[in-house]
């Protein structure tokens, strides 16, 4: 689902609000989630899941095409853990 599809779905369910207001609310929610993750905080949405930032260690790997050893520096990655209730619904379907 794309962001504009999400806005359209919410607009269809909340007909009292303008589409531009819902789009602005979605933008604010996503911006606040991004800001919290940038600051290193964990974001938990009950009934959906939690987002957190994890650090990956530096490592060495081999380029399969050239055979040359490459060094990959440490980096941050986004980790999502789904909630128990979401997991149960997905398993049922």
What does this protein structure show overall?
It contains 3 helices and 5 strands. Helix 1 crosses helix 2 (19-38). It has helices at residues 3-13, 19-38, 84-92, and strands at 43-45, 49-56, 59-62, 69-72, 75-82. Strand 1 and strand 2 (49-56) form a beta hairpin. The chain has 93 residues and is an alpha+beta fold. It has 2 domains: 1-40; 42-93, IHF-like DNA-binding proteins (HU Protein, Chain A, Irregular), CATH 4.10.520.
- Put simply, the count of helices is 3
The succession of helices and strands, N to C, reads: HHEEEEEH
Look at the structure and give the mean pLDDT: 95
Judged by helices, strands and strand pairing, the structural class is: alpha+beta
> Beta fraction of the residues?
25-35%
Instruction: Report the CATH C-level class of the largest domain.
Output: Few Secondary Structures
The percentage helix is: 40-55%
Strands, count: 5
CATH architecture of the largest domain: Irregular
Can you tell me the CATH superfamily of the largest domain? IHF-like DNA-binding proteins
Please name the CATH topology of the largest domain: HU Protein, Chain A
Rounded to the nearest angstrom, the distance between the terminal CA atoms is 18 Å
User: How many domains make up the coordinates?
Assistant: 2
Q: What is the rounded Rg?
A: 19 Å
Largest sheet: 3 strands, antiparallel
Q: In one word, what is the shape?
A: elongated
Low-confidence stretches: none
């Amino acid at each position: 689902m794309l962001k504009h599809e999400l806005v359209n779905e919410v607009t269809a369910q909340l007909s009292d609000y303008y589409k531009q207001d819902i789009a602005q609310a979605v933008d604010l929610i996503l911006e606040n989630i991004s800001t919290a993750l940038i600051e290193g905080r964990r974001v938990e949405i009950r009934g959906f899941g939690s987002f957190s930032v994890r650090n990956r260690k530096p490592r060495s790997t081999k380029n399969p095409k050239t055979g040359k050893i490459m060094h990959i520096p440490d980096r941050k990655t986004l980790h999502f853990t789904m909630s128990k209730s979401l997991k149960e619904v997905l398993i049922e379907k």
